[in-house]
């Protein structure tokens, strides 16, 4: 029996790479019954709404989403649709795994999972301006907040993830030396949670700036990282860059009522419609979705196909130093999963 799921092709390169992913999912008869919905600029173009009600209703019904990247127009009064979706569905954990695929780079043994708090911190976006004289925007302000409950929940999620996925260590990444309250609460709760896993999962602490330095010098020493929203956003792009870039990096947004799977990257307007985007980040997001519905067997088949095509056959898009098109790599992947 098929599992109902919402499909949002997205903006920019979204339709190309999501289309490619669906072709591959179809080739292995992935058990999803797609409900296609619009969001982002595609929603604005169709109905003037970047997040149409029918899209929200669909996600409430299915609780499961595969999503292409969405363009958020800057300075046009739109709130980020991604932030809105995460809040609407309480998608509190953003899980971003990064693993070495192509060896022979600077590092060959990277296997890091960044667990990012997805609802609070500075991305709660309580931003404002204070006028001085005639300048209405003379001073800009941003008030971040975090709750004990959410700090506890995200760190616990990371430790449970570590247990379930045979991981050894969780690193709490923070800036509690400066942001004594905002990050202090995260660290305080993090330490309490870590105690509950003593003897099972090791725990380390790093200040975010030192962590960034270590991540580019000895990334092999990292396992699971759990951190607040803004730091997680930045560090997960960094870790993706250690292993081949954004074209390979998937993410899962997990909540109690819904789960949404997407690439870490955005809509890449610079290469949209040029048939050169790498579909693997979204394809890998689909494998996370398959694992989420307990179809690890199918996820494994896709992972193997990616390895065959990209590593063994060296069929690579431009972002990975190759010259094949989106369509060509999609055809190769389809053949490899069959
Ligand atoms: P971006 O991630 O779209 O692009 C950054 C660079 O990476 C570009 O040079 C792009 O060509 C390249 N790139 C990204 N994905 C690629 C792929 N699959 N294959 C090959 N190259 C790829 O970031 P940017 O340009 O800062 O943002 C563009 C738009 O995307 C903005 O409107 C932003 O708000 C939105 N965005 C949406 C996200 C989402 O829906 N989850 C996440 C991040 C950004
Ligand atoms: Mg980001």
UniProtKB/TrEMBL annotation:
Positions of the Isopropylmalate dehydrogenase-like domain: 4-333
Coiled-coil segments on the chain, per record: none
One example of a Gene Ontology biological process annotation: isocitrate metabolic process
GO molecular function terms attached to this record: isocitrate dehydrogenase (NAD+) activity; magnesium ion binding; NAD binding
Organism listed in the record: Commensalibacter melissae
Keywords: Oxidoreductase
Top-rank taxon, per record: Bacteria
Similarity comment: Belongs to the isocitrate and isopropylmalate dehydrogenases family.
Full protein name: NAD-dependent isocitrate dehydrogenase
Pfam families xrefs: Iso_dh
């Amino acid at each position: 029996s098929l599992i109902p799921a919402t499909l949002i092709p997205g903006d920019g390169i979204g339709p190309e790479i999501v289309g490619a992913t669906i072709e591959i999912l179809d080739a292995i008869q992935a058990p999803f019954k797609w409900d296609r919905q619009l969001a982002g600029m595609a929603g604005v173009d169709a109905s003037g709404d970047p997040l149409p009600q029918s899209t929200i209703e669909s996600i409430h019904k299915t609780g499961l989403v595969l999503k292409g990247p969405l363009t958020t127009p800057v300075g046009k009064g739109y709130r980020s649709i991604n932030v809105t979706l995460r809040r609407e569905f309480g998608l509190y954990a953003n899980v971003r795994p990064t693993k070495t695929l192509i060896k022979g780079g600077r590092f060959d043994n990277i296997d890091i999972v960044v667990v990012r708090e997805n609802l609070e911190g500075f991305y709660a976006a309580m931003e404002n301006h204070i006028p001085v004289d005639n300048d209405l925007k003379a001073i800009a302000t941003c008030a971040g907040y975090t709750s004990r409950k959410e700090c506890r929940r995200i760190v616990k999620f990371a430790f449970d993830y570590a247990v379930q996925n045979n991981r050894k260590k969780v690193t709490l990444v923070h800036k509690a030396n400066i942001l004594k309250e905002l990050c202090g609460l995260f660290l305080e709760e993090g330490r309490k949670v870590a105690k509950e896993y003593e003897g099972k999962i090791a725990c380390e602490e790093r200040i975010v700036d030192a962590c960034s330095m270590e991540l580019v010098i000895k990334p092999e020493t990292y396992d699971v990282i759990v951190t607040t929203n803004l730091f997680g956003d930045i560090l997960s792009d960094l870790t993706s860059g250690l292993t081949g870039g954004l074209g390979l990096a998937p993410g899962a947004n997990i909540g109690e009522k819904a789960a949404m799977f997407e690439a870490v990257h955005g809509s890449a307007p610079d290469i949209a419609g040029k048939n050169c985007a790498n579909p693997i980040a979204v394809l890998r997001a689909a494998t996370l979705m398959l694992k989420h519905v307990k179809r690890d067997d199918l996820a494994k088949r896709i992972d193997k196909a990616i390895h065959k095509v990209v590593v063994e056959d060296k069929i690579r898009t431009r972002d990975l130093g190759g010259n094949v098109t989106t369509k060509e790599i999609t055809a190769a992947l389809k053949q490899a999963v069959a």
